[in-house]
Predict the structure.
Amino acid sequence: MEIVIVKDRAMVGQHAAGLIERTVLGKPAAVLGFATGSSPLPVYEALEGKDLDWTDVSGFALDEYVDIPVHHAQSYVSVIRREVVDRLGLDERRVRVPDGRARDLDVAARLFDEAIREAGGVDLQLLGIGTNGHVGFNEPGSSFASRTRVTALTASTREANSRFFDSVHQVPMHCITQGLGTILEARRLVLVADGTRKADAVARAVEGPVTSKCPASAIQLHPCATIVIDELAAAKLTLRDYYRYSARRPARAETGALL
Ligand code: F6R
């Protein structure tokens, strides 16, 4: 794992956008995994300022609420269109969000995983982290082998996401999410987090035991995961001085190898 600690939320966005930029420059037909929520917004904003050719890039969103109307401002299909597709100028037909309105949600989930496989797999998956340690909407207790599936949101996630709705009662109870097994198959993971309220979850994910109680701890098992966090989100990492020290690479070490 590579842990990158930067000054603030804007720098988290800049750094993670740089990793995405490198991926797209190296592979113009890259397959990207997009996250929603507040954390990735500075990443998308920073990407907007870059002169990248998005023509051949395709993407998959992490998750979607079940039975939220497609045109609802908080449906992830709307959020991805607004924050990613329109902002960056991607071809909407190349970006897929799990179908939370499908008559058969299990089939929709299976087709989503198949579509990722048919696209050749995800090259870089951007992730946020919930205060309870979820990634995607894999809540505590999720299997590390789980695939894209229908699952229930915890009360704490519905409470956390109620800021996007008029009240917590309007936050859907179910979602379709890429599974942890699906996420772990991406060639590269980039998890972004900022702010004090993420400090506990980040510490548990990065330095805690690998356990389904903290689904984000699954990133410890990934061979190429980068965690980009600001000082506040890094506050509870016991090894943060070492992460800072080890991030200073020798000048000639442009090997692409990760720690
Ligand atoms: C969103 C997602 C979630 C969020 C997490 C953090 O697609 O999969 O895991 O990343 O809930 O949300 P924010 O960034 O709003 O704090």
Notes: The chain is about 30% helix and 15% strand. The CA atoms of residues 159 and 167 lie 9 Å apart.
